[in-house]
Amino acid sequence: MGETPESPLTAIDMIEQRKIIHIDMDAFYAAVEQRDHPELSGRPVIVGGDPSSRGVVATCSYEARRFGVHSAMPSARAYRLCPQAVFVRPRFEAYRAVSAQIRTLFLEYTDLVEPLSLDEAFLDVTNNKKQMQFATRIAREILQEIQKRTRLTASAGVSYNKFLAKIASDVHKPAGLTVVTPDQAETFIAELPVRRFHGVGRVTEQRLLARGIETGAELRCCSLEELERLFGKSGKYFYGIARGIDNRPVTPNRVRKSIGKEDTLAEDCADKGQIMTIFGSLAERVSALVKARQTSGLTLTLKVKYSDFQTVTRSHTQVEQIEDADIMLALAEQLLNKTEAGGRPVRLLGLTVSNLTTDIPVEISPQLELPFR
Ligand code: TTP
Fold first, then answer.
1. 120 alpha carbon to ligand 1 midpoint, in Å?
2. pLDDT tens-digit profile of 140-185?
3. Fewest C-beta atoms under 10 Å: which of 131, 161, 199, 204?
4. Chain CA centroid to CA 184, Å
5. Hey, what's the torsion of the CAs at 74, 80, 86, 92, to 10 degrees?
6. Is 39 among the residues known to form the active site?
7. Is the CB of 120 under 6 A from ligand 1?
8. Residue among 59, 66, 92, 365 to mutate when testing ligand 1 (max atoms within 8 A of CB)
9. What pLDDT, on a 0 to 100 scale, did the predictor assign at position 373?
10. What does the pLDDT look like over 21-56, one tens digit per residue?
11. Delimiting residues of CATH 3.30.1490.100 domain(s) in the chain
């Protein structure tokens, strides 16, 4: 175990069964706010941007979810759905502190801890420091201990691979524990709507639905060739997970795949000159980050979100390393010409360098890319 075999279709899961736990804190930022401000408990709480701005919702309490409010929704819309909600600004320091507490706890069980964000991690407890036999028992103990140490609740998924553990943790939220055993996996996956599969975003979902593929059972009917035609390299991954196979190891030190920045504009903009000025500033910032990490990349990706929220990306890959702002800006201009920006007003612009030439460990940080203005 530990190494990813060449093909995800080699059923390592069946040969040497692993014990994987996925832990995810419940309504994380909102729960921390309710804990620290008891007058907010039991009330709809929305953490994120101010409703009078163009900001978005980072998350909200379960009381607010009943009104249809959810993450990434414009705060102004959240306010219309739930005017009685209390809007609060995120306090990342508080969230980081909790994140450190739960991480310390996880490390008491295993060193194979892979954080996905501040409030979420995979643990491989196949061989654990407490010599405990049952992963379910470990998960239950961890949930209790999280509650004791942080006065917050979390949910857990237990299974034999990451894919299943992650989906399972979402099944009985909040404060839930869900186990998917190898015998249950086939039925569990067959009934899942494809949107719940990790890695299926809105675009992929639409492509699958357009082909009449709505559930795991239907995904399983697709041949490997068909899935590779549809999704390129990811085709193999989808083929595997439809069969309950996911050999990805729990990797404690994930490496960063890209370095980028994006800006939501204060107002929609259709002026190409102004758009290039913003790319100038983005290029400066991305270049500074790339240099600070002593790396460079071979691919530059430009992102444009039009005022109707449609998002497009354009990429360029070259053999020379990309690290200087002026090179990024020149490439950005070429890429921008392949979009409709200017002709169509834009609301967000982004620039990302990927194909990095050195391994940079991921530092887990809050999702700052969302505008909290
Ligand atoms: P999630 O784990 O996706 O959500 P959650 O913990 O708020 O709620 P759930 O109980 O359904 O898991 O995200 C963790 C935190 O990350 C969340 O509290 C706020 C932040 N976040 C954003 O800032 N923007 C986003 O779009 C999302 C999805 C999360």
1. 9
2. 999 999 999 999 999 999 999 999 999 999 999 999 999 999 999 9
3. 131
4. 26
5. 0
6. no
7. yes
8. 59
9. 36
10. 999 999 999 999 999 999 999 999 999 999 998 889
11. 255-361
Write phi, then psi, for 348 (nearest 5 degrees): -150, 140
- Residue 75 CB–ligand 1 contact under 6 Å: no
Given 120, 145, 218, 284, which residue is catalytic?
Answer: 120
Q: Nearest to residue 313, comparing CAs of 296, 338, 290?
A: 338
Strand order from edge to edge, sheet including 258-269 = 258-269, 346-356, 297-306, 311-322
Q: What's the pLDDT score for residue 357?
A: 84
Which residue is closest in CA terms to ligand 1's atom 5?
27
* d(CA 71, ligand 1 centre) in Å: 7
Euclidean distance between CA atoms 111 and 129, whole angstroms: 8
CATH code given to domain 28-92: 3.40.1170.60
Pick the atom of ligand 1 nearest to 62's CA: 10
Q: Which residues contact 56 (CB under 8 A, 6 or more apart)?
A: 48, 49, 72, 73, 74, 75, 370, 371, 372
Token pair for residue 112?
């194979």
- What does the radius of gyration of the chain's CA atoms come to, in whole angstroms? 22
- The predicted model scores a pTM of 0.74
CATH class of 187-241: mainly alpha
Kindly state if the Cβ of 28 falls inside 6 Å of ligand 1: yes
Three-state DSSP class for 319?
strand
Which CATH number is 255-361's, of 3.40.50.300, 3.40.630.30, 3.40.50.1970, 3.30.1490.100? 3.30.1490.100
Alpha-carbon distance of 328 to 283, in angstroms, equals 6
336 alpha carbon – ligand 1 mean position (Å): 32
pLDDT band at 4 (very low <50, low <70, confident <90, very high): very low
